[in-house]
Amino acid sequence: MTAAETTAPDAPFGARLRRAMDDRGPLCVGIDPHASLLSDWGLNDDIAGLERFTRTVVEALADRVAVLKPQSAFFERFGSRGVAVLEKAVAEARHAGALVLMDAKRGDIGSTMAAYAETYLRKDSPLFSDALTVSPYLGYGSLKPAVDLARDSGSGLFVLALTSNPEGAEVQRAVREDGRSIGATMLAHLAEENAGDSPMGSFGAVVGATLGDLSSFDLDINGPLLAPGIGAQGATAADLPAVFGPAVRHVVPNVSRGVLSHGPDTGALRSAAARFATEIAESVTAR
Question: Measured by CB atoms within 10 angstroms of the end CB, which terminus of the chain is less buried, N or C?
Answer without folding.
Answer: C
